[in-house]
Write a structure and sequence with these properties.
Elements (H helix, E strand, L loop, with lengths): L3 H15 L9 E5 L2 H6 L1 H15 L4 E5 L11 E4 L5 E4 L7 H10 L8 E5 L3
Parallel strand pairs: 1-2
Antiparallel strand pairs: 1-3, 3-4, 4-5
Helix pairs in contact: 1-3
The structure holds FE2/S2 (inorganic) cluster.
C-alpha cells in the first residue's frame, strides 16, 4: 500500500463485507493505528487484513484504535470471535495476516506464536 488514499479505498471496499450483517455476532478485528503503530507498519497490516478478508469473502468488523500502551509490540491486531476471548497479536507483519485470518478468524485457531495478550472480557 502506498498512501492514505489506498487505505481509504480498501476500507470502502471492505464496507460491503461488513454491512451484510449487524456487528453483533461478527468477529471483530481491531488494528492499533496510533503514531507508533503507523510507524511500525500498521497501515500495511490493515491493508493486508482488508485484502485477505475480501479475497476470502469473510465478513468481519474491522476498526482501528489509537494508543494501546504496548508500543514495543506494534503493530498490534486484536481479534475477537463472537463469544470468545479477545486475543491481541503483536509485531504483526503483513505476511502474518493470512495465518491470522484463515487460522483464527475463519477457524478459531489462535496463532499462538504471535499472541501478546488475552482478555477475559467477552
Ligand atoms: S504511543 Fe505506542 S502504544 Fe501508545
Amino acid at each position: 500500500m502506498k498512501s492514505r488514499e489506498d487505505l481509504k479505498r480498501l476500507r470502502e471496499e471492505a464496507k460491503g463485507l461488513v454491512s451484510a450483517r449487524g456487528p453483533e455476532g461478527m468477529t471483530k478485528i481491531i488494528v492499533g493505528m496510533g503514531t507508533c503503530g503507523i510507524a511500525a507498519g500498521a497501515r500495511e497490516v490493515m491493508a493486508a487484513i482488508l485484502e485477505e478478508l475480501n479475497k476470502r469473502n469473510i465478513q468481519a468488523t474491522v476498526t482501528q484504535t489509537g494508543c494501546i500502551g504496548m508500543c514495543e509490540k506494534e503493530p498490534l491486531v486484536d481479534v475477537q470471535r463472537p463469544g470468545e476471548k479477545r486475543i491481541t497479536y503483536g509485531k504483526v507483519k503483513p505476511s502474518d495476516v493470512p495465518r491470522i485470518i484463515t487460522g483464527h478468524v475463519l477457524h478459531g485457531n489462535i496463532v499462538e506464536d504471535l499472541v501478546v495478550a488475552r482478555f477475559e472480557e467477552i
